[in-house]
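We modelled the chain as a single entity of 111 amino acids. Its sequence is:
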Amino acid sequence: MPRLKCGVKTCVFYRERHCTRENIVVKGSTALAEEETKCQSFSREVPDNRDDRYKMEIGSIGEINYHMPVYCEAVNCKFNTHRVCRAKEIKIDGSRALHSDQTFCSSFAIK
């Protein structure tokens, strides 16, 4: 499993440059560059609803996960093997994202 770093500070799952989900999904089935990918697992943090959001998300326990399964639809990425990321380390970016289209996998590398 990749070591996942996250730069999406506006996501409810973001904590200390990491993610608190058990896994994430990266979209971008036709991506040819990192900007054409996105983190489908992104969920915008609404400060007043943070605790409620955790309760609504299945598998969210609020603990940092340093290594996690990353399911990836970016089939043109050299790290994608049968829709699973095989990179040793990846980073999801989009520090001011308001929705998943403003996030991306900065570790994407074309085959």
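As a brief sanity check on the tokenised model: The mean pLDDT is 90. Strands lie at 3-6, 14-15, 18-19, 24-27, 38-39, 70-72, 80-81, 84-85, 89-93, 104-105.
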